[in-house]
Design brief:
It is a single chain. By secondary structure, the protein is an all-alpha fold. The chain is about 75% helix and about 0% strand. It has one domain (about 1-120). It is globular, with a radius of gyration of 15 Å. The protein starts with a helix and ends in an 8-residue tail after the last helix.
């Protein structure tokens, strides 16, 4: 059942991250797109905002797709880990642990899931 467990982990992690990526890139699913995300990033001191909004959105979309599909999972997992580490350091760490206070709890869970995929590999069920 290891392969089935990895498939569930990969699909949930990858789809959630890819969805966050399209929120940033295209404004889908209630997101703000590059312009809105870029403005928010600039408001917290990340400049140029639109450039970093594109990088974060692309990392989430590509990393999420790679992990969900089970292809290039090392690259996908690292993209997810890196974007979540930046989110923790720039936004969430100062708010403490709990997600209800905008803390880093949820980001840590995403990082742990991505590290698990990185260490175990994709399992047998992959797109290719």
């Amino acid at each position: 059942m290891l392969d089935e467990g990895l498939l569930i982990l990969r699909l949930v992690l990858g789809i959630i991250l890819a969805a966050h990526g399209v929120q940033k890139l295209f404004g889908w699913f209630g997101g703000y797109g590059i312009k809105g995300t870029g403005q928010w990033l600039e408001s917290i001191g990340v400049k140029p905002g639109a450039f970093f909004a594109f990088l974060a959105g692309a990392a989430e979309l590509v990393g999420g797709f790679f992990v969900a599909a089970g292809v290039y999972t090392t690259v996908g997992a690292w993209l997810i880990i890196l974007v979540m580490l930046v989110a923790v350091l720039k936004v969430h760490l100062k708010n403490g642990f709990w997600n209800g206070s905008n803390g880093f709890e949820f980001n840590l869970l995403i990082i742990a899931a991505a590290v698990s995929v990185l260490l175990t590999g994709p399992g047998s069920y992959t797109l290719f």
